[in-house]
Amino acid sequence: MKWHGCAAFLAAFAVFPAAAETFQEYPDLPPLPMVIQAMDSYPAVLAAKSGVKVEEANRARLEAGSYEYNVRLGSQRRTETALNQRYKEWEVNLERPFRLPGKASLDEALGKQGVEVSQWAYGDALHEAGRSLLALWFGWYREHFQAKQWQEQVDILNKQLDAVNKRVKAGDAARLEAMLAEASLAEAEASLNQAKLREQMVATTLTSRFSGIALPANPVLVAPVPLSQSSAYWKDEILRQNHELGVARAETRRWQLQSSRSSADRLPDPTVGIRYASERDGTEKIVGLNLTIPLPGSGRAAVAEGAAARAEMAAHQEAGVLRKVEVEATATYATASTAYDTWQKAKLVADKMQANADLMSRAYSLGEAGLPEVLLARRQALEAGLNAVLAQVDAAESRYRLLLDAHQLWPLDVDDNEQKGASN
């Protein structure tokens, strides 16, 4: 990935509509401009962005090299004892090491590869920030809709208690039934308070970690959408776009270049200098050339061997990352696919249990069922409803996670194809 690719990414943050043209807005996710702003200010992303600047500076250093001019000055006094003569003498040397042919191009390639590694890491930081945001967002969704379910249960039990109290006053029910209804209501209110507390805690974590994310007053719970493409399609998309794998591949290439550079350094660079001297109080002038050639020792060979071993290690690490990403891609698809089926079954159960609870409530009002049976049916309907809500949130989150890993959810990487081409 060249720097103009990263510049295009930054421009996407500054001019949102241009970057968002190919991305869809989802009613159960934060607005896209809000996501972009939150990503841009996320500490790990800012650190990775600074890492690109570090590697840019390192590239400039490698291209320039550490081959600087050196000036050596010397002064001495010559004494001729036989003639009892003393002379002031001095000399100046200007020296500079020179890179042997091939080393400069390797240094330039190393600098560029370092920048590419940092840019892949930048994209990986964005991706991980997106995963964290998605997890916290749906974590809040879970707690919010659980609290909503408990609130509905409290409202129903309040009405149930009113009905029981009326029957007790009319002499159609025992006081024991009112006490049972009050206990059920108190239990539901306690669960509601706990659910609200959990919701607030997750909300605080989310808004603290991602500044700029505002939670909706009335969040929408959208019916999940089944996956239309196959597992092979999603696996290919995730592997093609994966930043972690991109970092590993770029690191392998960097260490291969470093190995070549260390091998080239087994032949030392010469130092060439110009010498000018004044002897015998200036009666003699000397101009000459100096050539210094270090004699290579076993240390240079050890450095080259170490770099070659490090390149081999990077290749093995890349293979490990590839396997890890393949497993994760398969698991992410399986999770999303299973979550959708689970939601459908949970919704069917919840609908039936709610219908049963409504029937039991009507039967109680007609005197055909007792209050314990009604409360049990209500409890079962609540549990089924909670399971259905959680299954629905899980299905939505797992699908969005799949889209995120395939880079089809948010415009976080506008130049992935160029990145991929640069690293292969």
Short description:
With 424 residues, the protein is an alpha+beta fold.
CATH class, named Mainly Alpha
> Low-confidence stretches at least 5 residues in length (pLDDT < 50)?
1-20, 416-424
SSE sequence, one letter per element: HHHHEEHHHHEEHHH
User: Which value, in Å, is the CA radius of gyration?
Assistant: 36 Å
Tell me the distance between the termini: 11 Å
Largest sheet: 4 strands, antiparallel
- Helical content, roughly? 55-70%
Helix/strand/pairing class, anyone? alpha+beta
The total tally of domains equals: 1
Query: What is the fold-level CATH name, i.e. the topology?
Result: Outer membrane efflux proteins (OEP)
Number of strands: 4
Q: Provide the β-strand percentage band.
A: 5-15%
Which CATH architecture would you pick? Answer: Up-down Bundle
Tally of contiguous helical segments: 11
Write a concise keyword list for the protein shown above.
single chain, 424 residues, alpha+beta, Outer membrane efflux proteins (OEP), 10% strand, disordered N terminus, disordered C terminus
Structure notes:
It is built from eleven helices and four strands, in the order ααααββααααββααα. It is α+β, with helices and mostly antiparallel strands. It has one domain (3-67, 102-268, 301-423): Outer membrane efflux proteins (OEP). The protein has a four-stranded antiparallel β-sheet, with no helix packed on it. α5 packs antiparallel against α6, α5 (103-170) runs antiparallel to α10 and α8 (243-264) packs antiparallel against α9 (298-365). It is elongated and about 145 Å long. 33% of the residues are buried. Mean pLDDT is 86; it is low at 1-20 and 416-424.
